[in-house]
């Protein structure tokens, strides 16, 4: 029957698992995700170096001026052969040159004894390789380094254990060697290790200093508030001479004071002035009072080392699944962030391809918007402002209706136009009609209308400062005034010449210009709204196809001048239409003009005849019977002024209807559709692939070239993704 492994064997017999953790550390994965690790921290005079020597057999320097100036990772492996490997892991912020320089270092020793003999010389080599300045007379270099010295000791008698030693914290600088900045750097180095949730903090605490004054324990509490991952290691118990002091230390080891979940251990290491006397002789003191009352599992280096191996194994097994998950999620986030930067843009070709892709996407959305193919892209459902065809159709219809109702300065007599029976669905649907479903948009009609009105009518010119010199301000148009016949009569009387029984072209032109005096204001306001809708589309669409705000701002600054120039051409063409309609003498070949004028004359004559019929005469509308005498009487009773005024009114009214419809159509088709939407030279056609192809190398780099910060960010992401992919591969079983 197979004998069951002991718990410790299970924990320490998983070298492949712990080896994977160490491989991750070698790849600097710890800068991305916390790794399971044991970190030794303490003051420079806490006995940390002696403790490490007792745990690993490596004679770390004890002199303050010779102490290590970087983190040291000591790994012990159980292996068939005995060998020691010494390498340097570059710091996370190392330059490529420094990284290559330190990675080229490979120290070696045949055995632990060989390592102990060579260790001072090895440290000198490592310090030089890292660029450490070790004396006040030395020039250049740094006092501390983010590089990590890795020492791997393998042999058949070695237990599996990895601990990381960080430089001891200190409070007072050494003149010519360390500075206040170095104090802060070391403290930051320590906190960077102990803040990680997967770090077991091995706090080295000298027994001859009151635990309440131990700064390292206070520092550990900042990042391990519940004391769940801090293990206290009490050193130098032989320096405590008073019985009360020894009792206090025993109380701490018994976890009765300053409690920690992992508790405390007390060890006695070899002092700086002691010889290599054996472990048993140094720890004989623990068989004396009051030390003998302590649990043997909490006393001595061997008990501590066993506990550390147990902690490391437990933590590695517990955290391994979470670690794999964290690395996978972080890799996905990093790849998504990299993809968000778009393709690299270091060369002209890369920049041109990148910008051409953005221009092509912009034109695709513009074309789909103009053709009302809103299923083409989810962006249309996300933003109602992108639906150009719908917005412009609503805007044009609103303009046409408002122009028909309010553009005349005065109401014409018998002003019922042929469009009076027009069924204005937009006006008939009120905000209360919220239950009516619009099947084409699956929206309540009133809600849809509110969206359309807000998107086309409630436009604030102040939101478009770049259009200040192009668009008009908001306006309020009054309803047409009454009393047109009095006004025409007065105009004729004040303006007639020597002609007989007729009016001149000058009188007709004056009447026409005043009756159409609202046209400039209303048509400019309509064109301004159309321009703002197009400008909003361009801005919003650029934000979609070019999420990088810096790139988008640079791109807009390059196309802005041409876009604004095309808006000006649209407004310029509107002014041309206004000058044609209002400054030239009224003229038309439209047959509707003569027909409408003749109908007006006939209606006016019929109305006058009926009004002159004597009381009691039989009147039956179109079937009324009148005599020739009555007709003669009705037509000769008018004065010359009245007759001319009526002719002028009927001609003006008939021409106004023809000109109004012609003008509204021309503004909508030639100004909006041709100059703003569908023509070959609209603002929507500025940012195209042809425009990108025409850019010079300097312009292209100014727009699409990556800034130094983006290049650095891209390079960092590339390194991070590379590291995480390697980590993911390491963690695969």
From TrEMBL:
Domain GED: residue ranges: 645-733
Protein name: P-loop containing nucleoside triphosphate hydrolase protein
PANTHER family noted in UniProt: DYNAMIN, DYNAMIN GTPASE
Keyword Nucleotide-binding found: yes
Pfam families attached to this UniProt entry: Dynamin_M, Dynamin_N
KW Kinase (keyword) present: no
InterPro entries for this protein: Dynamin, Dynamin_GTPase, Dynamin_N, Dynamin_stalk, G_DYNAMIN_dom, GED_dom, P-loop_NTPase
Location of region: Disordered: 414-440
GO molecular function: GTP binding; GTPase activity; microtubule binding
Keywords annotated in UniProt: GTP-binding, Hydrolase, Nucleotide-binding
Domain of life where this protein originates: Eukaryota
Domain Dynamin-type G: 32-321
A GO BP annotation: mitochondrial fission
Any single GO CC term annotated in Swiss-Prot or TrEMBL for this entry: microtubule
Residue stretches of biased makeup (Acidic residues): 415-435
SUPFAM superfamilies found in the cross-reference section: P-loop containing nucleoside triphosphate hydrolases
């Amino acid at each position: 029957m197979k004998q069951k492994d002991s718990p410790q064997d299970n924990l320490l017999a998983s070298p492949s698992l712990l080896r994977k953790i160490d491989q991750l550390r070698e790849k600097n994965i710890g800068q991305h995700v916390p790794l399971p690790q044991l970190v030794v921290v303490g003051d420079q005079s806490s006995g940390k170096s002696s403790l490490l020597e007792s745990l690993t057999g490596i004679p770390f320097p004890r002199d303050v001026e010779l102490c290590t100036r970087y983190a040291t990772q000591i790994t012990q492996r159980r292996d068939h052969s005995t060998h020691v490997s010494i390498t340097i892991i570059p710091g996370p912020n190392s330059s490529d040159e420094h990284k290559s320089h330190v990675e080229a270092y490979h120290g070696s020793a045949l055995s632990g004894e060989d390592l102990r003999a060579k260790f001072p010389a090895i440290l000198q080599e490592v310090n030089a390789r890292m660029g450490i300045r070790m004396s006040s007379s030395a020039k250049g270099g740094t006092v501390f380094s983010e590089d990590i010295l890795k020492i791997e000791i393998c042999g058949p008698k070695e237990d599996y254990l990895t601990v990381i030693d960080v430089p001891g914290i200190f409070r007072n600088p050494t003149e010519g060697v360390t500075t206040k900045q170095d104090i802060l750097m070391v403290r930051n180095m320590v906190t960077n290790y102990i803040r990680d949730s997967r770090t077991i903090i091995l706090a080295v605490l000298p027994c001859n200093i009151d635990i309440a004054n131990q700064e390292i324990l206070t520092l550990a509490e900042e990042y391990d508030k519940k004391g769940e991952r801090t293990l206290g290691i009490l050193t130098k118990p032989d320096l405590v001479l008073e019985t009360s002091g020894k009792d206090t230390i025993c109380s701490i080891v018994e976890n009765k004071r300053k409690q920690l979940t992992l508790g405390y251990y007390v060890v006695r290491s070899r002092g700086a002035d002691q010889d290599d006397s054996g472990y048993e002789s140094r720890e004989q003191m623990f068989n004396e009072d009051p030390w003998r009352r302590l649990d043997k599992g909490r006393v001595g280096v061997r008990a501590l080392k066993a506990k550390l191996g147990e902690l490391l194994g437990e933590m590695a097994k517990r955290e391994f699944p979470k670690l794999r998950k964290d690395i996978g999620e972080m890799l996905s986030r990093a790849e998504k962030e990299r993809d968000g930067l778009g393709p690299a843009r270091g060369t002209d070709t890369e920049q041109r391809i990148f910008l051409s892709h953005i221009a092509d996407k912009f034109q695709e959305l513009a074309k789909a918007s103009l053709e009302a193919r809103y299923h083409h892209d989810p962006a249309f459902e996300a933003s109602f402002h992108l639906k150009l065809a719908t917005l412009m159709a609503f805007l044009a219809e609103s303009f046409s209706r408002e122009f028909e109702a309010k553009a005349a300065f005065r109401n014409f007599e018998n002003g019922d136009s042929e469009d009076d029976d027009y069924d204005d669905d937009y006006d008939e649907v009120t905000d209360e009609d919220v239950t009516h479903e619009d099947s084409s948009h699956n929206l309540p009609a009133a809600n849809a209308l509110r969206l359309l009105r807000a998107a086309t009518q409630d436009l604030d010119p102040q939101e478009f400062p770049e259009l200040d010199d192009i668009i008009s301000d908001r306006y309020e148009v009054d309803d047409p005034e009454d009393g047109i016949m009095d006004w025409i009569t007065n105009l004729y009387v004040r303006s007639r010449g020597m002609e007989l029984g007729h009016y001149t072209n000058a009188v007709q032109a004056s009447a026409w210009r005043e009756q159409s005096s609202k046209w400039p204001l209303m048509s400019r306001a309509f064109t301004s709204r159309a321009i703002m809708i197009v400008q909003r589309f361009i801005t919003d669409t650029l934000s979609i196809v070019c999420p990088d705000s810096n790139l988008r701002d640079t791109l807009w600054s390059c196309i802005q001048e041409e876009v604004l120039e095309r808006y000006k051409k649209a407004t310029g063409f509107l002014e041309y239409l206004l000058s044609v309609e209002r400054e030239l003498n009224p003229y038309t070949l439209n047959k509707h003009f003569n027909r409408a004028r003749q109908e007006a004359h006939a209606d006016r004559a019929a109305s006058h005849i009926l009004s002159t019929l004597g009381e009691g005469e039989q009147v039956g509308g179109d079937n009324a019977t009148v005599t020739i005498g009555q007709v003669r009487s009705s037509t000769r009773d008018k004065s010359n002024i009245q007759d001319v005024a009526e002719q002028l009114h009927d001609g003006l009214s008939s021409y106004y209807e023809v000109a109004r419809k012609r003008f509204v159509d021309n503004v909508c088709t030639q100004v909006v559709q041709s100059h703003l939407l569908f023509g070959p030279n609209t603002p929507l056609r500025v940012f195209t692939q042809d425009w990108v192809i025409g850019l010079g190398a300097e312009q292209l780099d100014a727009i699409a070239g990556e800034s130094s910060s983006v290049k650095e960010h891209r390079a960092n992401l590339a390194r991070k993704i590379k590291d995480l992919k390697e980590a993911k591969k390491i963690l695969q079983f």
